[in-house]
Amino acid sequence: MSVQINYNKTLSPNSSVNKVLFVDDKYKTLGLKKHLSNKEYNCVLDLLKSKDIKKKILSFEVSSKVKIVLVSIKKEISSSELENLGAKFYDNFKKSQIKNFNINSDTSPKNINNIVGYFLHGLKLKSYRFEKYKSNKSKEHLIVTVSGKNKPSLKEQIKFKAIEEGTFYTRDLVSEPGNVLHPDEYARRINSLKKDGLKINIYDEKKLKKLGMNALLGVGQGSIRGSYLAVMEWNGLKNNSKPLAFVGKGVCFDTGGISLKPAKFMEDMTYDMAGSAVVVGLMKSLAKRKAKINAVGIVGLVENMPGGNAQRPGDIVKSYSGKTIEILNTDAEGRLVLADALTYTEEKYKPQFIVDLATLTGAIIVSLGSEYAGLFSNDDKLSKHLIDTGEKVEEKVWRMPLNKNFDKLIDSKNADMQNINYVGGAGSTTAAQFLQRFILKKTPWAHLDIAGMAFSKYGGALNSGGATGYGVRLLNKLIEDNYE
Q: Measured between alpha carbons, how far is 218 from 32 in angstroms, rounded to an integer?
């Protein structure tokens, strides 16, 4: 069920509509008197005696036509808690016969900034459904009208909508099946984002070969589909300041290649491009909200398939950096895609920092489950910003170690390095250690392994299962708080 939000200036207390009002966590109702009719107010007072006031959302049927909903707000409440309240509101009423509500923003506490904006943001994020391929799509709408003076400003409305659109675009991309969103189609969709104000440049196989991106190309050479490097630029500043750079792994489907994965759960490998989808959704958000920064998003798009032309275990390739890589396992492919993309990003754009995102290792799920993304970084300041921001938006990261002692696990006898650690252990760390070798000029860099966060079978606070869009809100907030 989709959500439609409208804004209205005033609402008469005697209006016969379903009303949503904010109260404190003790459910003190005195401040509501001027916003309700006498009959409604007395009815709520009477019904409140039989309700469990430990609940954060209470609803009252005061007549056959009118429902009153009270949302309790504690004195100190975070933006993420407000978003979760909005999501809870959606869950409470998505199956209700009542589909039309009026939120009275004048009842929100004045000492807390933008309560209604964050509440609606959570409500919208929770409402997402991927129903593109269902014959019987839901046609119902939850219509929310906001009245009063404490509505989000126009600027805030634009910001929230931009982040929602970016998050939903990421979820859409991750949810698409591999036969639809193969690299050729993905490149076309990214190219269509020019309409949002992004500068797009797509490097096809011919251009990639000329550049020497053999690590990336090796991954995709077993597929009948093309391989691409897609570059998205947002120039929100008129000056030539160094951009912020975001790099994503876009393996549209990962069979493992010649090192074939087991059949069980291979269908989930449609989301092995989630890192790239986060970068694309982020860049869309930045353009939509006219972010006052310069940013570049770069994603490597490939399909890892077995075939007569597929890369073999034992092959040696020369990366864009000039370093050679021995391919011991073709299922350790994401790091090969990122290797070329990282060096190219650093050399071409000389960014303030690089954050890369990838569903890189199953080992990170063993370590952190679906509660934290793994953070690996060469920079304490960037790490702290990511950790602090993750706590604010509840897209959390946990810093994991990098150390030169891990290098011996990926050193190769036949090339500069090998793409997998066959000794065993430290799977996520050795993958990150591998990536760090392609940051050649000591640019501040962070790698987010989001394998446990990009897709949820059971849903979360702000999603209902499936693609989560994890990372779009995290990076938007990182930029907003520290770089705009």
A: 65
The rounded mean pLDDT for the chain is: 94
Domain stop point among 122, 152, 182 = 152
Residues noted as catalytic = 261, 335
Dihedral (CA of 184, 190, 195, 200) sign: negative
Residue 233 and residue 289 in contact, taking contact as beta carbons nearer than 8 Å: no
> Does residue 165 sit in the same domain as residue 136?
no
- Are 11 and 17 spatial neighbours (Cβ–Cβ below 8 Å)? yes
Picking from 81, 103, 80, 84, the residue whose alpha carbon sits closest to that of residue 92 is 84
pLDDT at 364: 98
The pLDDT of residue 339: 98
Contact between 295 and 233 under an 8 Å Cβ cutoff? The reply is yes
For residue 478, the enclosing domain spans 159-482
Please enumerate, as own/partner, the contacts of 434-437 that have beta carbons within 8 Å and a separation of 24 or more.
Answer: 434/335, 434/339, 434/410, 435/335, 435/338, 435/339, 435/342, 435/356, 435/376, 436/376, 436/378, 436/402, 437/323, 437/339
Among residues 455, 467, 452, 410, the alpha carbon closest in space to that of 433 is found at: 410
- Tally of structural domains, the chain: 2
Which amino acid does the sequence have at 108?
S
**Are 163 and 145 found together in one domain?**
no
Q: Of 113, 130, 152, which residue is a domain's last?
A: 152
Note whether 177 and 185 are within 8 A (CB): no
The pLDDT of residue 422 is: 83
Residue 66: partners with Cβ closer than 8 Å, 6 or more residues away: 16, 17, 18, 19, 40
**In 10 A of CB 112, how many CB atoms?**
17
Is residue 317 a contact partner of residue 324, using CB atoms and an 8 Å limit? yes
Q: 371-417, pLDDT tens digit by residue? A: 999 999 999 999 999 999 999 999 999 999 999 999 999 999 999 99
Quick one: 290 and 402 in the same domain? yes
| Together in a domain, 373 and 391 | yes
DSSP-derived pairing of the beta strands 316-318 and 294-304: unpaired
Highest mean pLDDT among 21-30, 91-100, 219-228: 219-228
CATH number (domain holding residue 87): 3.40.220.10
Contacts for 319 with CB less than 8 Å, ≥ 6 apart: 212, 213, 214, 215, 325, 336, 339, 340, 343, 438
Residue 9: which pLDDT band, with cuts at 50, 70 and 90?
A: low
Sequence-separated (6 or more) residues with CB below 8 Å from residue 286? 162, 166, 234, 236, 293, 295, 476, 479
Tokens of 344: 């190219």
Q: Are 352 and 441 in contact (CB under 8 A)?
A: no
